[in-house]
Amino acid sequence: MDNFDEKKDVMLSDCPVCGSKKSLHVTNKTDNIPYFGDILETSVTCDKCGYQSSDSISLEHNEPKRYILKISDEKLNTRVAKSQTATITMPELGLKVEPGPKSQGYVSNVEGILSRFEQAVIRAIKLEGEGISEEVQNNALDILELINNVKMGELQTILILEDPFGNSVIDDEDAESELLTPEEVDKLQTGFTTIDQ
Ligand SMILES: [Zn+2]
């Protein structure tokens, strides 16, 4: 990660949490990240109360794009770059991950995406705890089995990556790509504040 084009500046501000004057370090950093383009990361830390927060804003406006890949066992190593603004869907398995305020961009492969879905289902089961209904539990176990079948190459399914800022990619010659319509873009979550240029 050391070949990124990085620019950083820090200023002091008043803390919105504890109200101390000039105790808040505001760091603005622009990064150029492979696949994702220019990103502005703002993080704040308060010396007095320890308040911390961070936010990222994409400075790139590429065309909104959708990638569709049929996953088979030869596609498990296909590279996937998911920006903070991307939504990943596996419609046949009923799985969808939408960007939230804490979303991170990452570069992984299809198998890595499947593992992330697996972890998300396991976390959801744990959150339900002892009070989990048999129906919810069985449903979750069915999904885990389906994900595992895809990982083992026993089940083929569709992976969809949609990014209103076009900073995501399924890097495979067999992946179909198309532009999103404005209506489709409106329905997507972006996970952070966007700047209209
Ligand atoms: Zn503070």
Could you walk me through the main structural features you see in this protein, from its secondary elements to its overall organization?
The structure is a single chain. The protein contains three helices and twelve strands, in the order E-E-E-E-E-E-E-E-E-H-H-E-E-E-H. The protein is an alpha+beta fold. It has two domains: 5-58, Single Sheet (N-terminal domain of TfIIb), CATH 2.20.25; 65-187, ZPR1, A/B domain (Jelly Rolls), CATH 2.60.120. Strand 2 (24-33) and strand 3 form a beta hairpin. The longest helix is centred in the middle third of the chain and has 19 residues, at 110-128. It is globular. The chain starts with a strand and ends in a 10-residue tail after the last helix. Zinc ion (ZN) is lined by residues 15, 17-18, 20, 23, 46, 48-49, 51.
Present as ligands are: zinc ion
Largest sheet: 5 strands, antiparallel
Low-confidence stretches: 193-197
Q: Mean pLDDT across all residues, rounded? A: 86
Structural class: alpha+beta
User: What is the CA-atom radius of gyration, in angstroms?
Assistant: 20 Å
What is the distance, rounded to the nearest whole angstrom, between the alpha carbons of the first and last residues? 29 Å
Strand content range:
35-45%
- CATH homologous superfamily assignment of the largest domain: ZPR1, A/B domain
> Which CATH class of the largest domain is shown?
Mainly Beta
Shape: globular
User: What's the number of extended β-strand segments?
Assistant: 12
Helix share bin: 10-25%
Number of domains: 2
